[in-house]
C-alpha cells in the first residue's frame, strides 16, 4: 500500500530582542537566570531543515521580541519563570540543500506555547513540524514515521483547594481552553483481523507532549515534564466500512502519578484500504472527553473541542 509518510522536523526558534547574537556567542548567565537553547535547524531522515521568516514574542518575567533567525543556534539568558512563546510572521521551512524552495509542512505545536525555565537550567524549546515524504507500509507489521493528535480542551472549573492542602497543579488550566499536542517520530503498526473487526494497533516511539497558553510553572514541572518520553498505544478498528473507531489514547507516568487520557466520542471518516484496514492519514474529529490526573491534585476533566488525529 502506497501512503504518505511524515517526518518530524523539531525546530526551536528564537533570537534576542536587543541586538544580534551569533551561534558562537557564549552568553553570561547571572544569578536567577536560566539559559534557553534554541536550535534553528533540524535533521530528520537524513535531511536538514531550516525555518525562515519567523518572528517570536516571549512573554513572562522578561519580555522579548525575536527577529533574528540567521544563526543555527541561539542561546538566550532569561530570568527563571514561566513563559509563553508566540510564533508570528510570514514563516516557511526550507531544506538546507535547496535554499529558497519552500517545503510543505504542518505545524502541530500549540501557538503560543508554554515553557518553564529554572535557575541554572539550560532548556531547549521546540516547535514541532511534520514534513511529508514518500514511503511504503506493508499490511502486517511495519514501522511508520511521524504522527500526532492535536486540538483544544475546555477544562472544567476548579474549586479553591481546602486550607492546608497541597497546591493545585491544575489551577491554571481550570475553566480555560488549552491547546495541546501529543507528537511522536515513529511507530510500529500491527494489523490483525479479529472476529470480523479489522484492527490496526499503533505503538509509538517516545512522545512529546505540549500545551499552549500560560499554564503555570507547577503544571509544566509536575505534569508536562512527567509525560515527556513516555509511549502511547492505541487502536483503530473498522468493520470494513469507511467509518473507523479509535480507542482511548493514554499517556501516563505511574511512577510520578500523572496520566493524560483522550477519548474521541465520534467515529473518524478516515476510510479503509482494499483490505478493510483504516487508512493512516490526518483526519479531523469533532469532539471527545479528556482527563488529566496528578498526584496530590486529583483529576481535572474537559471537553475536546475538535482537533486532528494523524496516526503514523
Which properties best describe this structure?
single chain, 312 residues, mainly beta, 2 domains, 11-stranded antiparallel sheet, 4-stranded antiparallel sheet, 1 helix, 4% helix, 53% strand, disordered N terminus
Write the layout of secondary structure elements.
Layout: E1 2-11, E2 33-39, E3 41-44, E4 47-52, E5 55-59, E6 64-66, E7 73-79, E8 81-88, E9 92-95, E10 102-103, E11 106-107, E12 113-117, E13 122-124, E14 127-136, E15 141-155, E16 177-194, E17 197-204, E18 207-211, H1 217-227, E19 233-238, E20 245-246, E21 249-253, E22 258-264, E23 283-285, E24 288-294, E25 298-310
Parallel strand pairs: 2-13
Antiparallel strand pairs: 1-14, 2-7, 3-4, 4-9, 5-6, 5-8, 8-12, 9-10, 11-14, 15-16, 15-25, 16-17, 16-18, 17-19, 19-20, 21-22, 22-24, 23-25, 24-25
Any idea how many domains? 2
Low-confidence stretches: 1-24, 134-145
Q: What's the quaternary structure here?
A: single chain
Major sheet details: 11 strands, antiparallel
Q: What is the N-to-C succession of helices and strands?
A: EEEEEEEEEEEEEEEEEEHEEEEEEE
What is the percent of helical residues?
Answer: under 10%
* SS content category: mainly beta
Number of helices: 1
* Rg computed from alpha carbons, rounded to a whole number of angstroms: 20 Å
